[in-house]
Amino acid sequence: MQTKQLGNSDLFITPLGIGSWAMGGTGWDYAWGAQDDAASIAAIHRALEFGVNWIDTAAVYGLGHAEEIVAQALAGWSGKRPYVFTKCGLRWDDRGHIQRVLKADSIRRECEDNLRRLRVETIDLYQIHWPADTLAEIEEGWSALAQLQREGKLRWIGVSNFDVAQLQCAQAIAPVTSLQPRYSLVHRDIETDILPFCGREGIGVIAYAPMASGLLTGAMTRERAAALPPDDWRRREPDFNEPKLPQNLALVERLRAVGQRHGRSPGEVAIAWTLSRPAVTGAIVGVRSPVQAEGVMRAGELKLSAAEIAEIEGS
């Protein structure tokens, strides 16, 4: 696969990265339902066999479990080691309740926990998962990341879900390597100011949920959405319920029509659309099995024409 430089870093990443959110399994607020660990490890290995060279995870996914699965997968991988990206700033208590915390001492403790679970000495990209409520706490958290980078525990530092004002706040303290925003055909709000800002500032963009959390894969139907298990966070998500679901499924049919001409799935076309944006460096694609990896991990090779993009967008 071709690679692109991620922001100001020396990391050259493939168009797609492995997303491990669902690999955290069940038992926390934003779980995707039960997940087999062996299937997760096999999915990571299959994606790496396709040439993908980075994995994105986070402390909060499965309350630490996803990071442990990533470590197990890499321990059993004999090929070239991929980059490992993880996140901090979402802490949980003994009952699993999650809150945003960017205090310096908390960040430092989290980093040590990340390193331990991932079984690494240095994290390739460390990201603030969500901004805190105040700019003062954002400044404190970002300053802590910058210090950990100087100490060699982190190679590069980035943020996730930040707006322009929050990015500017961080930039005033230390360079921001990357932003991880939600971005897909269903969620395009970052196009107005965030993507242009990142383009001007040379901040890499790694989009998450390019298939809208499974909505644009072509496998989601009204019946399947209604039958999502109680512990799947998507059951509560407006995109998967009336009145939004019918218009989202209509979008899937436009993706399907374009995909049929290329021998590709709707999900692959959705990913290719996200990657067609010049400011986007790469996209995170969640996979839960080797079969899923085989179905999407070559989507970065698909190039859409301007006419196809207009057709997909319904313009």
Quaternary structure type: single chain
The CATH level-2 architecture is identified as: Alpha-Beta Barrel
**What does the overall shape look like?**
globular
Strand content bin: 15-25%
Strand order of the largest sheet: 3-4-5-8-9-10-11-12
What number of structural domains do the residues give?
A: 1
Instruction: Please compute the radius of gyration using only Cα atoms.
Output: 19 Å
**Residue-averaged pLDDT:** 96
Q: What is the CATH C-level name?
A: Alpha Beta
Number of helix segments?
Answer: 11
The main sheet comes to: 8 strands, parallel, barrel
Q: Cα distance, first to last residue?
A: 31 Å
Order of helices and strands: EEEHEHEEEHEHEHEHEHHHEHH
Observed structural traits:
315 residues; alpha/beta; TIM Barrel; 8-stranded parallel barrel; two-stranded antiparallel ribbon; 11 helices; 12 strands; 38% helix
Quick take:
The chain is α/β, with parallel strands linked by helices and 315 residues long. It is built from 11 helices and 12 strands. It starts with a strand and ends with a helix.
Molecular structure report:
The chain is 38% helix and 15% strand. It is globular. An 8-stranded parallel beta barrel has the order 3-4-5-8-9-10-11-12, surrounded by 5 helices. The two termini are 31 Å apart. The protein contains 11 helices and 12 strands. The protein has one domain (11-214, 275-299): NADP-dependent oxidoreductase domain (TIM Barrel, Alpha-Beta Barrel). It has helices spanning 37-49, 65-75, 104-118, 135-150, 164-171, 194-201, 222-226, 244-262, 266-275, 290-296, 306-313, and strands at 4-5, 12-13, 16-19, 54-56, 83-88, 90-92, 98-100, 123-128, 154-160, 178-180, 204-207, 282-286. Strand 4 (54-56), helix 2 (65-75) and strand 5 form a beta-alpha-beta unit. The protein has 315 residues and is of the alpha/beta class.
